[in-house]
Design goal:
Elements: H1 15-171
Length: 172
Amino acid sequence: MNEDQTRELPDKRSFEERVFARFDTIDARFNSVDARFDAIDARFETVDARLEKLEARAYDTKPIWQKALAAIMQTGLEVGEIKAKVSVIETKVAVIETKVAVIETKVGVIETEVAGMKIDYEGIRNELTEMRRDLKYKVKKSIDLILQFLVEGRTDLSDAEDRIKQLETKLA
């Protein structure tokens, strides 16, 4: 191996100059990294400031949220009360519906009975009409018979009077 290889470098500067140049490059890079860290640090400070503002706002809005939460809880209690009242009303409505069903059943029975009574009434009315017609016929027949007996009785009476007169004339 040839030991002169380091001498043939294209850079003609001395070893110290090259080392210092490398240090300068490393310094430049550190400065660049340092600048980037400074930028990141600045951004963190901005974020930190924004967080502080948000936290301050959260402390400012905390009473509002507490009031809103209390209002929501109150609304929940009121809804619970309304549900309880609706439950009572539903129970009462169920009882009323049961009573209405019983009444409807009774009304149905009454309607059936009334319909039966109407049918009976019509039957009785027809029977009464038939009886009336029959009674009229019988009364008329009876009156006709009575009249016939009266007429026959008059005829017989007239005949008897005529005979009595004839007998009286024979006797006289």
